Design the sequence.
């Protein structure tokens, strides 16, 4: 059974204080590692997909990396608007079987 | 703008009543999904459909039913058999032919009392 574990559950940072969120996974065969951002009361917003170890993707202050067992979401010099819950997910199986999600990391950036 | 529309945003029902949540997409995606989100839990897959007139159970299908009569629409019915129906329900879609991302609507918060 696929498993996705995110840590920490919550993280409070000062504005400008860089950090990383962790997503460790156990799957029989990785079919994509996905990062989402979710604001309160809204649906998740897609950020990145990573498919193979060593792959990296960047968007503004966010950078996602992937190894064979885990993925990191690095946040550089965060701003208060980066506050959100960040979700990690892996592909469930072939084609369009959906994603298995972790419980998320609730990130708060204080001004 | 293309996207996924879920309605209503908030829904209140009495225990013992069936309720149907609407999900419409204009992204021309083949696959559609329903997830449930509870506080402190990850999103859990209820049902998914890879093509019109076909759907599969996810991890927590008991007490729910779906239909897929049109490519654009994937309504979810929460039946009286669902023991803990109060939750945030999210609909999503994907192109369906590759291991691509899911695109989500903004959810329906269902409260059953």
Sequence:
């Amino acid at each position: 059974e696929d498993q996705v574990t995110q840590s920490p559950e919550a993280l409070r940072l000062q504005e400008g204080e860089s950090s990383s969120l962790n997503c460790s996974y156990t799957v029989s065969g990785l079919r994509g590692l996905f990062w989402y951002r979710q604001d309160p009361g809204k649906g998740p917003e897609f950020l990145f997909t990573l498919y193979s170890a060593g792959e990296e993707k960047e968007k503004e202050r966010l950078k996602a990396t992937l190894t064979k067992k885990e993925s990191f979401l690095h946040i550089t010099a965060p701003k208060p608007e980066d506050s959100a819950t960040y979700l990690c997910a892996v592909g469930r199986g072939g084609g369009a079987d959906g994603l298995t999600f972790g419980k998320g990391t609730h990130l708060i950036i204080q001004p | 703008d293309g996207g996924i529309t879920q309605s209503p945003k908030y829904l209140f029902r009495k225990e013992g009543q069936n309720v149907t949540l609407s999900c419409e997409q204009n992204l021309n995606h083949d696959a559609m999904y329903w997830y449930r989100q509870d506080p402190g839990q990850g999103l859990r897959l209820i049902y998914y459909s890879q093509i019109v007139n076909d759907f599969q159970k996810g991890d927590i299908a008991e007490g729910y039913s779906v239909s897929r009569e049109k490519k654009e629409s994937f309504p979810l019915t929460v039946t009286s058999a669902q023991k803990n129906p109060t939750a945030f329900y999210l609909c999503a879609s994907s192109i369906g032919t590759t291991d691509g991302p899911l695109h989500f609507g903004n959810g329906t918060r269902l409260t059953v009392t």
User: Anything to note?
Assistant: Residues 19 and 67 of chain A are 18 Å apart (CA to CA). Chain A touches chain B through 27 residues (CB under 8 Å).
